Amino acid sequence: MTVRDPMHFVANQETPSGVGCKSQSVLRALRLTILFLAEDANNAGAGPVATVSMDHNTFIPGEITVVPGTTVTWVNKEAMPHTVVDLNKGFRSKTLAKDASFSFTFATAGDYDYLCSIHPNMKGKVIVKPAS
Ligand SMILES: [Cu+2]
Known about the structure:
It is built from two helices and eight strands, in the order ααββββββββ. It is an alpha/beta fold. The strands form two sheets. The chain has a four-stranded mixed beta sheet, with no helix packed on it. Strand 1 and strand 2 form a beta hairpin.
């Protein structure tokens, strides 16, 4: 497959000095950036989402079942700082102060046991399985 870039081709033809080429390549970079951002926004909006709260030193709900592709967001609802740490090291949040959140998109089916590294008896589980 051949990919052509007509804008770049025209710029080369009309401005042999190279000045036009430079501004064209800046424009091209901008265009690519915009495409990238647009794609990113689409992805963020496309998948299902779920929320887990952290309150009273507890993940609520403690166990959730989601389909692959779901973005889970943990939100700390209390003044006590918490973290979200996957026991299999798939994800790990920073320390979350009150109202801070952490998100992770689960692409792969499986059971994900996690805990708060500050309060190791504070545990939760995300079960990722395709809808039947
Ligand atoms: Cu904690």
